[in-house]
Amino acid sequence: MAERVLIVDDAAFMRMMVKDILTKNGYEVVGEAENGQQAVDMYSEHKPDLVTLDITMPEKDGIQALKEIKEKDADANVIMCSAMGQQAMVVDAIQAGAKDFIVKPFQADRVIEAIQKALS
Ligand SMILES: [Mg+2]
To answer: Which residues carry this modification: 4-aspartylphosphate (predicted)?
Structure first.
């Protein structure tokens, strides 16, 4: 059965890029959220196997969303999506329980490698 992924990013273009990589590699995208609050709500609704979580978003950023998702489900598999220059926030995210991070612009093989590792 295909592993189920929730994609979170405030940029529709970024969500589309990630979705394209995932569906081409046999993953099922169960939802797309465009801010941290939606991410937390959709996590509860869909219980995905994995979340790709953007760091910089309006309303609630990825770090706060990560903390709330981990409070609901300590076993949640979350990969952070970061931009160049966000190393400090990536460190915060890893300490808060993120499994890995991918850096924009995304490279398909790196995205898939991170996801496979996080799910193994
Ligand atoms: Mg963003």
So the answer is: 54
